[in-house]
Amino acid sequence: MAILVGSDTRLLVQGLGRDGSFQASRTREYGTNMVAAVHPGRDGQKFEDAVPYFSTVAKAVEETGANTGVIFVPAPFAMDAIIEQVDAGMELVVCITEGVPVLDMVKVMEYIKDKPTRLIGSNCPGLLSPGSKAKVGIVPGNIVRPGNVGVVSRSGTLTYEAIAQLVQYGMGQSTCVGIGGDPVHGTTFTDVLELFEADDETEAIVLIGEIGGIREQLAADYIKEHVTKPVVAAIAGQSAPAGKRMGHAGAIVTGKAALASEKNKALAEAGVHVVESPALIGAKMKEVLGS
Amino acid sequence: MNIHEYQAKQILDDFGVPTPHAEVASTAAEAKEIASRIGGRVVVKAQVHAGGRGKVGGVKLVNSPEEAEQVAASLLGTRLVTNQTGANGVPVEKVMIAETLDIKDELYISIVIDGDLGAPVVMASTEGGMDIEEVAEHSPEKIFRVAGDPLIGLTTYHARDIALALEVPAKALRATTKLITDLYRVFIENDCSLVEINPLVITEDDQIIALDAKINLEDDALFRHPELAKLRDPNQQDPLEQRADKADLAYVKLDGGRVGCMVNGAGLAMATMDIANAAGAPPANFLDIGGSADQGRIEEAFKIIMADDDVEMILVNLFAGIARSDIVAQGIVAAANETNATLPIVVAMRGTNSEEGIKILADSGLNITGAPDLAGAAVAIKRKLQEMGNSN
Lengths: 291, 392
What we know:
Chain A is α/β, with parallel strands linked by helices. Helix content of chain A is 33%, strand content 22%.
């Protein structure tokens, strides 16, 4: 089954500049069903001689039945792209773009609050379900394997690291979801945990957090009450000093709760297998699953 | 992005927020002139991007223009070391001369984004003049919080609630309500990440005045505020951080480190710092080279790490998705040859073109140890420390 993306994903890619085009190619290579490309002024043309271009998302959805959108447009236009996709009735919108002004994301979150669209990001690597060859975003397709571990993470490349460790220990993934490193973002750890808990294909969960905010603590609360599947967690940034932003806009220690140690503690108290080093995610999951 | 107090005060003035009469000086003579213009007792405040300046002589009360001149002369051209700066401190290139007020009460107010609420939040407290982190820790009930509506903003009745929570005198209620509404506009209309007034004061004659002003601007939104982008003062930054900024690299210098880290991706960079630290070698920096780094930027990144005297060895951890390992390897080799780098370099390289990248490094003749992954990198660092005879 996997979660969020699978064989019924009909993907629309918005923003086909240099990076967007490169990623759209990788996405198609992987086997994802990309049905539409949105880039104003290219109507009538086809991306890679296969996927029709449209100037607007609404037209693309009408013509192709796209249900999932991924956004690569530059940061100043990301809010607009998200709202355009929400207005077109997309089920899932994934915003890869980094550097989106936080006040734009504040408005976006308010705008979509009562709408049926689910948003992932901004500033995220997107998601991928290896079993159904569905990739939405930039997670490299060649590092994943089909399997039963769900991965959810605030990071991009650290997610790849975790995936590589799982593969090294012989474990594949149901779905890998990068929720992004911005302080205000769509889908949260808790949302993804709920989906993994309900997913038949997912037997265990890897959660990768970072310093900053309290989302890991909220995840811990949720796990304690609702998650029966084993969870292995790692928090990046234990050696980061307070008050310094570590790349991601959300990764900054601004109070006690933002510390890695506090997050580790909350997760451990919720029964999560917390690894001291992010190098031990694979080994710990192997031990937990005992196979 | 940090800006100076005098720049923050200018923004507050533009938005109609009452502030003390104050002007900025670059020379002692100017300071004297301003002090005599303001008249009476004035305060001389060093303009630096760091808190804690009051405790180290960066804020001084003076009684005459001559004294203002002396204090300005003693501050200008020096470096101020506070508990928030590194050991090198930050340069004092300007001082602000401000009128003194007869203060009845000191309050606190700030606005930040609460990521978990997804909205700007106004925090107010009657405990002005204190470190708000301490108030939050010891008496959280003394902090009053109100979230602004993402689409409507902060309503006047909310601002009035805050003013009432601050227990301002009845005579100052209307002015305080307006001040809070205006501060919220400052935050939204300038895309701030922080607006903090500590202290916000009530004077003996019941005026409400923003005595101090700290404003941080959101870097990601500067593209729509070109006039604010000009307020950047690179001299307040660590020289290496300044260099990294120019090359569009996310770099943070860390005190007391030994291992220079070069990584793609913020999360993986933090994880790499953590494993170096756990292996007994504290990281000297955070460095995210980003996704689509070209060879020139890789070279600059490597040179920035090499320019840090604290660095005893280098740890490169690359998990290439968008980035290409071979280009990163070429950048490292070019920069290492140019700087005659002899330091040990531990490299973990995976993802796109990693085999080519590893080969380029292996053939380079540099002092390189390959590692298969993050765990392998930790082992390699430990071994290198032992070889260097200082594994602690």
